[in-house]
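Entry 14. Structure prediction run on the chain below.
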Amino acid sequence: MARTREGAPASELFDSVLAELTGNGRVSVLIFEDLHWADEATLDLVRYLARRLATVRALLVVTYRDDEIGRTHPLSVILGDLAPIPGSSGLGCPGLAAPR
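Output returned:
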């Protein structure tokens, strides 16, 4: 489990999470749900990990509601950054509301 000291800078936490993925010897799955509500630090972590996933045996799954983000939402910028990364892909899913 990734651990850092209290009050450590975000970069130390990010490196710790990546080290956990690298050193555990297993395939890992990280899931970030409802990223449209995420704070800036969480979005930074997702960006950091996504850019380094080619070096670890891990799958990063991110969920968000595309109707909750606009062109200026911080998540839109990150999605644009991640799109050209090899192995990155998107999958649309219709809403799960009951039919009327």
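Strands lie at 28-32, 58-62.
Filed with the rest of this week's runs.
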